[in-house]
Fold each of these.
Amino acid sequence: MKNKWIFNIFGLESINGPIVYLKTPKNIMFNEQVEFILPNNETRLGNVICIDENVTMIQVYEGTNGIRLDKTKTILKGKPLSIKLSEDMLGRIFDGTGKPIDGLGEIHSDIERDINGSSINPISREYPRNYIETGISSIDGLMTLIRGQKLPIFSGSGINHNELANKIITDSNIGKEEKFAICFGLMGAEFETAEYFKNSLKENGSLSKVVMFQNLSNDPSIERILTPKVTLTCAEYLAFDLGYHVLVILTDMTAYAESLREVSTLKGEIPSRKGYPGYLYSDLASIYERAGMIKGKSGSITEIPILTMPNDDISHPIPDLTGYITEGQIVLSRDLYQKGIVPPVDILNSLSRLMKDGIGEKYTRKDHAKISDQIFASYSKAQDVRALAKVLGENDLNDLDKQYLAFANTFEEKFINQKQDERRTINETLDLALNILNILPKEELTKL
Amino acid sequence: MEPKKITKINGPVIIATGDESFAMHDMVYIGVHRLLGEVIKLDGKSATIQCYEDTSGMKIGEEVITTNAPLSLSLGPGMIGSVYDGIQRPLKMLEEISGPFIKKGVQISSLDEQKKWHFTPTVSIEDTVEYNFILGTVKETESITHKILYPNHQSAKILEIAPEGDYCINDTIAKVQFPDGQTLELTMVQKWPVRTPRPYKQRLQANIPLLTGQRVIDSIFPITKGGTATIPGGFGTGKTMLQHQLAKWCDADIIVYIGCGERGNEMTQVLEDFPKLTDPRTGRPLMERTILIANTSNMPVAAREASIYTGITIAEYYRDMGYQVAIMADSTSRWAEALREISGRLEEMPAEEGFPSYLPSRLSEFYGRAGRTLNHNGTDGSVTIIGAVSPQGSDFSEPVTQNTRRFVHVFWGLDRDLAYSRHYPAINWMISYSEYISNLENWYDKNAEEDFLVYRNKIVKLLNEENELQEIAKVVGQDVLSDSKKLILEICKCIREGFLQQNANSEIDTYVPLLKQYKMIKLIVSIYEASDTLINKGIPMSKIKEIGFFETYPKIKNEVANIEMAKIDEMEEQYLDSLDKIAEEYKEVL
């Protein structure tokens, strides 16, 4: 990259929200990193999103507050947006664009990477098979998490999904490995959320294994567009250069997508569903598809993006498109949450696509697949019975239907429900499932 | 004349202006990195170009050079078993050049130019050849003989033909002379523009089924060789799983699997599984009949748009050799979205949901390239298209699903509720259909059992009745239904669990030959009919349940291997005997 090609330009044409228009300078590149220097020497980061012969459109990530059309200096960096990478980033806290904010100084390194990354060649990928024991029965038993997988959590506002994320981090057996790291990307997070994660990581002593990028709700919203990319660039370095097993947690993807929509509208793009840009799918894919394993490299990236479904609607574009890209989803249910069942995993809506190849005799237990199939089938049947009971009343149900109701209730209370400090091994989880299935008569258990 | 120079860059869409004249759909090289692009709009001196690679770092004023040819594929031996990106660059070679992460601006040949192929001529000097005539053959894999086709539309006389021997794809294997005296040297490779359908002599009726070994498809909603089908389904309903099953087991000679804007790990899975699995017809690894096109969701969007055309052109090329080719396109929605994204960048007026107004015509063009054909060289082949659709919000009324539906003849609608209760394949039998049943009547009569369709129709009727009964049972409970209705519910439960559901991960159940499917249908229908007769005589349902049929039937699929299918006939006799005994017992009471 030719860092010497730096041009200074004075003055801007116009500003519209986070977008700045400039008379097209000579040699400006598409997607180039740009820095604006304000009269008070403050700097703002941006990149080139459209160029024609006359005007260049630049998206400014740290907001355009206080930028004047005159007296603003524009510096072209001659390279795409990139960040410096080093193993020293572990244990540090950065803002949403990758600048340190913990007062411990800049990161010094010769390694600098484009935050957009490059796509992994599909034939260089290694198919993920190694399961991760999270200690949570509903996940281990029914939607097993696999190393190198991207498995999002679909939640709703007010449901405490952060506790689930936290439980996964603290209880996962990956945490006990030497080369393990967490890359945390917070987008539009409340201050309390950021603090909650920081404190609990401190408590269990894993803060030194975490790289945190935080964009809080009061930070410029457009900065959020960079946060997941910066987080994943750091994760790729740790995983594929240094051999770490990296768990990437991105929360909240809804805030990210909303920022994307904001910019798209300002650019005057033709919107598709609910005003989101037509390229939302490709854009989300460029984030999620960075998870995985590569042949011949020891590290891995497992991604757990968290998103809140607007109005609990799973068919909203954000959860919908996410579900098409990720390898399954963990859906949280408000009904269960209100019943006091925690983590409120809605097992019928949830799925792990990579599960089938990462369970069984070689990995978990021989009967794992049969048990989980039976649970899904029986619990789904029990839902029909519940609907019938609403019409007829529980007393008018026949004996078999009553057994189904008992099964569903016990299953929710004993299996899905799990205290924050309770960790179940995979054997405990599967035995528990078998026990609960025994409530039903043998001839109903066709899948076992 | 001044060359065209870049005057605007907006993501993958570029405008170049200058004197040099470009033609529509010309392939061009853009800028200093020589990135590949295609002309999609011409206006005076400026040309709008879609770029197949990432445009970061490109500058105004860089030159654009045309190749004076449309986006074309190199067709020749060596394609089988390859993995290509959307514009036919072999990913294996790309990995060798740029490592595990794809770099841009890499130009590589689509076919291995060093490899020697054993060529056997089938024409002699002085022979006259016409378009698509077979010049010779090359054994491409153990099961596929690649036929070298004469590529020119004008007929010619063979002046020279290479003797049998080993040649590289670019070696001259023949020299021909046109009637006007001009001569042309031919190699084993030919170029074909992806957006132009390859011609054939005549369309044939699609009246041979494409057997897939999947019960719900072969027996209930069959597809033909040369037919078109769509698999719409929300996420998690098993579209990809079903596509994989079809790619593994259907009785086509060649499979072109297009991973269009889908997950990288899914392609990896195909790459891991297929070499290990054997084709039940040839006993050879499945990879020896498969061509993969992988343009995953994070690869450039314009190449995703092209990947569908790349796939179908390769399929048509093998069809012209007389092969039965099946295309699995997963997913056509991602292709439609690529159209939408590019259309948006061109600032075109959108139609429904932001999709361009030409979406239906593009879809119909694509599905229109399927068919069973008589080729110019006298062979007959077929291209079957099975396209997955990922409806937004699982809503089948969205534009891609609705428009696809207009152009395909088989609809396998996947249902979220079925998938939730782990009923796979989650094909909803109430909304799915196949328009090929009547075309296939003759085939079933001749090649399967004569009463196959009779039994099939009985199953469909039972399932319809069950659906109505379920509605009633939801309101009043099952207990109030009469015994004959309860029998229908029990039988249909068996049909659903024992016949419609099929476990792709079970060795016995993953592939089921048509004859076993027939035996399974016949078994359940005859038990139903015999039981129904008894119930009409007043014998209670509880007594009929005692024979144990309802517990056994769902297990047959997992316990009776394909080679032991005669056991199903024995079961039928045995259960019919038990029912006879019950009838005897009750003879005196009633």
Amino acid sequence: MSNATSNIDNSHDRTDIESTEIVAHVVNLKKSFGDIQVLKGISLTLHKGENLAILGRSGSGKSVTIKCMVGLMSADEGEIEVLGYNIRSLSSEKLNELRQQVGFSFQSSALYDSMTVQENLEFPLKRNLKLFDKKKLNYLVKTALQDVGLDGAATKKPAELSGGMKKRIGIARTLILKPKIMLYDEPTAGLDPITSAEINELILNVRKKYNTSSIIITHDISCARQTADKVIALIDGHSKVEATFDELKITKDPELAPFFKY
Amino acid sequence: MKLKEFLLKCENIYRFIQNIFRQALSPPFEWREILKQCYAVGNRSFFLVSFTAFLAGVVFTRQSRPSLSSFGAESWLPSLVSQAVIRSLGPLITGLICAGKLGSNIGAELASMKVTEQIDAMEVSGTRPFSYLVVSRVVATTLMMPILVVFADIVALLGSYLTVHSINNTGFELYFNDVSANITYLDIFSSIIKATFFGFAVGLISCYVGYNSQDGTTGVGKAANTAVVISMSFIFIIDLLSLQFTNLFR
């Protein structure tokens, strides 16, 4: 992966959260669907406590990248290491072990629509931690809901929630297992600017409270600006550049500049 | 290319079945979910199976009676009806009803979960969705189908008895003495085994098409439809095979 292009002013601070500990590392990731090669060599490094935004146009393979990182899709080539686990050679038991430490917030929120919000949040606790004590479950669910600002929504069904609320509940469901890494797939897609700003704020609060490192997949410039310490741009299946938002903003690179034009 | 696709699909189905057995037979077991699904399967099909079995008993009796009367063999009616119901009619009706009702339900439910990334969400949180969603449903349909078949047999015979009673004023004891005298353990046993295979086929096919659904929302309808059509076809195939097999012991 190339570093910031020559057009970028490198004098800006990269991030105020500097850590040398690498929690996720992807090298030369390639993935094809039939004859179409979507990822042609993505590389990225996520440090502990860092928020990394992956910016790119629709269909550029942003979501595919993070799905490969949790084994939801298998990569054709390349190395993926998350929390010390080499994803491509993991047994299903080890993969499950890793997945419990990685939270994944889906673009569609992916709430279980046959369950209430309370049951949605209890589900991973019951299944993974074999926690059935009603008092403990209630406490953990209440705390997670408070953390996303929706403590009155426990009895509601997903169909009764707005888009923004669904996103928050989706995030709460992943937070309940206290993940070390959060992967956000288009967290602000389809939301109004005010709700988007609230979600961005939530992403920052999650990092502060849960001490997570995050990858934020987005094509929303304001989301990347508000949440990311570092931004990677995906252009034509390659990770084109890695820099801070302020560095990218002033780029004159013809492939990157249009992102910041609108 | 088509042959390659077909062979790949066969491999997928083989792995799917292998996974079902592996996860059904190794801990942690999904007792809660299996019980929940058993209740759902029984509850969903109970009324329809009862209603259809009752009508089948009535119709079969009314249709058979004139033919037997013309030979002066009306007294054979309980024997004929009981053998037809227990050997074939009961399992077949229950199997077809369940293929329609459960097949579409399971196929559409899993397909819509797939489309809305709910299965991915379970997968990614390490909650073993295959065991939770597929194994529990396949076990539930396999366990519940024989129970529904026994129930359907009883209701169909009751329908038949009420019909005979309304025409000849035949007594309950006399009718069911005739029925039990002509039913062998092999009839009952083969019917239950057949029903178990019906249940497994309906569960397996519906879960497979739902769990592997593609093409977004169109895929949901397609999965429901495919689940019903293939399940029904397999019910007839299993029925035929079990008949051939049971005849070896007669």
